[in-house]
Design goal:
The strands form 3 sheets. Strands 3-7-4-6-5-8 form a 6-stranded mixed beta barrel. Strands 9-14-11-13-12-10 form a 6-stranded mixed β-sheet, with helices on one face. The chain is globular, with a radius of gyration of 21 Å. It has 5 helices and 14 strands. The chain is of the alpha+beta class and 342 residues long. The longest helix is centred in the first third of the chain and has 18 residues, at 5-22. Strand 5 (126-131) and strand 6 form a beta hairpin. The protein folds into 2 domains: 39-198, Barwin-like endoglucanases (Beta Barrel); 232-341, Sporulation related repeat (Alpha-Beta Plaits), CATH 3.30.70. The termini are far apart.
């Protein structure tokens, strides 16, 4: 018996949506019933020595194709269509075997072993320099895909790019800077050795499944830590004053009022992330408060010229800050950064 016209229409719409998502390797991921992403069981040897992407002048589309505004999960995105400089700080994640060889938003197949990345609005293709502030490592990647479609993340790295930056343990803060066509023509983008080749060549281990009673946090925050180094203390001299902004804590967190001051107090602070959007840092703060309620009273959000930093503190000594950083690292599987303010 023939199906009603309304049922046939619904099936056609569902099929169109699946085709649309299939064309983007970094499309919406996660959720019940969807397999976990991760590394191959036997990744190729020598990935730590894979060279960075070599920037070259590539045409920027001013309209159509990957330059058209688009909507994902109810959010609108407007791609950049010029050669403007671009800098951003926030969280990075990575994607692996689940999307390997699938078509990216640019039409190119995703290669988890190449130096590539996904970004929501940068031109496809374009190039960015990614820096891990926790260890100073840098890598140049070619942006050829869209994503990650999470409010608190700014870039999705290929498996090899994350490996070279020592970011395979999960979501972690990064700084990204676009390499424009003008930079490429002038050769000003070139720097000395970024030091990523010093990465240990130990074979990565596949992520372990979550326990039934695990805290509901993003999947990338639940990856195991592989020989994670202790948090690195960086002294930041003559930092400009920041304005503290208290964000509401979730109801599940213990009642506490975040410290509010015209600028951060002197001492040691544990920085969990930096965001370009206020709602991103608010969501991340709520995740941390739910997962580590004992640290909720020490959470602070500082705003400076459009950048929002989530920090814990202040602590009177490096040792106390390191203890807190280790607690965060073990509880959330992310790499915090310790800073000293005088």
């Amino acid at each position: 018996m023939a199906r009603p016209a309304s049922a046939r229409s619904l099936a056609l719409v569902a099929g169109a949506v699946l085709l649309l998502l299939a064309g983007c390797a970094s499309g919406p991921r996660g959720g019940p019933g969807i397999g976990r992403d991760g590394p191959d069981a036997n990744p190729p040897a020598g990935l730590g020595q894979v060279p960075d992407a070599e920037p070259r002048v590539e045409a920027i589309r001013s309209s159509g194709g990957t330059s058209k505004p688009y909507v994902v999960l109810g959010r609108s995105y407007v791609p950049i269509t010029d050669d403007r400089p671009w800098r951003e700080t926030g969280l990075a994640s990575w994607y692996g075997r689940k999307f390997h060889n699938q078509s990216t938003a640019s039409g190119e197949p995703y290669d988890m072993y190449a130096m590539t990345a996904a970004h929501k609005t940068l031109p496809l293709p374009s190039y960015v320099r990614v820096r891990n502030p926790a260890n100073g490592r840098e890598a140049v990647v070619r942006v050829n895909d869209r994503g990650p479609f999470h409010d608190d993340r700014i870039i999705d790295l290929s498996y090899t790019a994350a490996l070279k930056l020592d970011l395979l343990r999960g979501v972690a803060p990064v700084e990204i800077e676009r390499i424009t066509n003008e930079d490429i023509r002038a050769g000003t983008w070139r720097r000395g050795d970024t030091g990523t080749s010093a990465l240990a060549s130990a074979a990565p281990v596949a992520p372990r499944p979550l326990a039934p009673d695990s805290v509901a946090v993003p999947a990338a925050l639940t990856s195991p830590v592989l020989a994670a180094p202790r948090a690195e203390v960086r002294e930041l001299a003559a930092l400009p004053p920041l304005t503290a902004e208290a964000a509401p804590l979730p109801a599940a967190a213990p009642e506490a009022t975040l410290a509010s001051a015209s600028s951060p107090s002197s001492g040691f602070w544990v920085q969990l992330g930096a965001f370009s959007q206020r709602d991103g840092v608010d969501r991340f703060q709520q995740q941390v408060a739910r997962s580590l309620p004992t640290l909720a009273p020490a959470l602070n959000v500082f705003a400076e010229r459009g950048t929002y930093r989530l920090q814990l503190g202040p602590y009177a000594s490096r040792e106390l800050a390191r203890d807190t950083a280790e607690q965060v690292r073990n509880g959330l599987q992310l790499a915090p950064m310790i800073v000293e303010r005088r």
